[in-house]
Q: What sequence folds into this?
């Protein structure tokens, strides 16, 4: 198979793998908290235990990601480094996924402990899959533009999966709940559907993607000590991680409040599905045009434009009174278009740090480097879940049945957590990126060319020795 055909095939088979992944993951990352507060109707004491357990577990799991990266980097098999862990992680996480949407029949510390064990076991499996999946990108191509095409398609497919859940969760669970006589059963059945989608689309990636193994240099096995060197001596990777973690905390905090916003502030939960559909189409369209945008704009300029759109969107979102769906929709479109472009850029920044690390440190570690992508997502989700859980309890939303039960101070706390705090974090992320990130298009080409010269020199030296 020629290189062009392989690239096209890889883009789509790789990207399609994340449709089911994000459909499956979004039910946990965005709606598990709502399930606990509004479907199981856990009391405030139990929710404090669960919020603390979920936040700490996600933080702990995020910091475990680089260690999983070491394991993947050190894997040697006839199926490659990545696919064995994609499969193992997929199966292991599915075993425990379904138990996250079960009522254990107890409350208080007992519920929190059972939930904690199941959640940890689920995250162990998902981490293995997540690290292996995203760290495959640098092995598909060492060309920046080809990576951007593959990354854009992957992010489009991820957003298709995510927004399928966002748009569908209210009508689907309502329909299933009515059919079965229980909203708990409705969520349980949807979890089963999500699990099936995850297994199906990840199988497409495992079967269809072909790595370019000629890209990878023969790096010795990585020890935990080397892992710390790979991360902490790669200054570009560190600054990218700091900037993008701040961005993800803001992004996930806002999206996690979505269903609460339409139930307790807007006053019509059914409108959430329509709003989510508008945002989903907007963000997927933004991702689709990203490769065309790159023909005329540098990455830095796209990041600047994205940040401007997000700032304007948050300002409109904050000042929009309840019931003004047109203003809310415009604000949402601006925010999600900007955030869609930054999602692609984040993935590309981290992927380019693989070559930068090899150029600077003399060793290539795809999985350890790309483990910072799920680390960012998980740490962002961990902090966001803490913000959401605390806000729901402290604002009085936990006891409220609708907007009429909310106080002005409760509304202000809610809006500040959903809009002002994320805006501050996203703006700070942009400032850090502009100040410290140096791998532009010219610098990356120089890195790749110098690495090629080094590789050729080693091959010539080996031929001379032999």
A:
């Amino acid at each position: 198979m020629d290189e062009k055909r392989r690239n096209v095939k890889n883009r789509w088979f790789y990207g399609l793998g994340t449709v089911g992944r994000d459909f499956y993951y979004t039910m946990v990352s965005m709606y598990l908290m709502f399930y606990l507060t509004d479907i199981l109707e856990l009391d405030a004491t139990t929710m404090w235990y669960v919020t603390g357990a979920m936040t700490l577990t996600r933080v702990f799991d995020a910091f475990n990601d680089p260690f999983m990266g070491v394991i993947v980097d050190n894997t040697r098999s006839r199926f490659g480094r990545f696919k064995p862990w994609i499969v193992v992680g997929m199966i292991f996480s599915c075993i425990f996924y379904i138990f996250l949407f079960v009522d254990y029949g107890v409350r208080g510390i007992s519920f929190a402990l059972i939930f904690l064990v199941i959640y940890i076991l689920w995250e162990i499996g998902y981490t293995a899959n997540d690290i292996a999946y995203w760290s495959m990108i640098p092995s598909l191509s060492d060309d920046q533009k080809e990576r951007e095409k593959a990354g854009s398609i992957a992010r489009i497919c991820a957003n298709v999966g995510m927004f399928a859940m966002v748009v569908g969760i209210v009508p689907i669970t309502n329909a299933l709940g009515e059919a079965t006589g229980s909203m708990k059963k409705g969520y349980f059945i949807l979890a089963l559907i999500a699990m099936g989608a995850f297994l199906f689309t990840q199988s497409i990636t495992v079967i269809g993607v072909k790595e370019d193994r000629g890209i990878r240099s023969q790096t010795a096995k990585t020890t935990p000590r080397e892992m710390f060197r790979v991360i902490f001596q790669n200054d570009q990777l560190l600054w990218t991680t700091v900037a993008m973690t701040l961005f993800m905390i803001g992004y996930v905090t806002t999206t996690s409040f979505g269903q609460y916003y339409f139930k307790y502030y807007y006053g019509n939960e059914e409108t959430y599905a329509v709003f989510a559909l508008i945002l989903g189409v907007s963000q997927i369209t933004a991702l689709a045009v990203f490769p065309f945008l790159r023909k005329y704009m540098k990455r830095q300029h796209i990041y600047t434009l994205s940040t401007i759109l997000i700032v304007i969107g948050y300002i409109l979102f904050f000042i929009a009174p309840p019931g003004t769906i047109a203003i809310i929709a415009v604000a949402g479109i601006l925010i999600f278009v900007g955030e869609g472009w930054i999602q692609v850029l984040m993935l590309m920044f981290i992927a380019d740090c693989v070559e930068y690390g090899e150029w600077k440190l003399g060793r290539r570690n795809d999985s350890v480097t790309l483990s910072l992508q799920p680390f960012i997502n998980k740490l962002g989700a961990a902090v966001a879940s803490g913000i959401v859980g605390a806000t729901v309890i402290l604002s009085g939303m936990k006891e409220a049945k609708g907007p009429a039960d909310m106080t002005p101070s409760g509304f202000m706390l809610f809006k500040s957590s959903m809009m002002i705090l994320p805006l501050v974090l996203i703006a700070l992320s942009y400032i850090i990126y502009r100040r410290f990130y140096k791998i532009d298009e010219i610098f990356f080409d120089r890195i790749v060319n110098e690495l090629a010269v080094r590789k050729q020199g080693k091959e010539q030296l080996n031929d001379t020795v032999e």
About this structure: The CA atoms of residues 144 and 445 lie 9 Å apart.
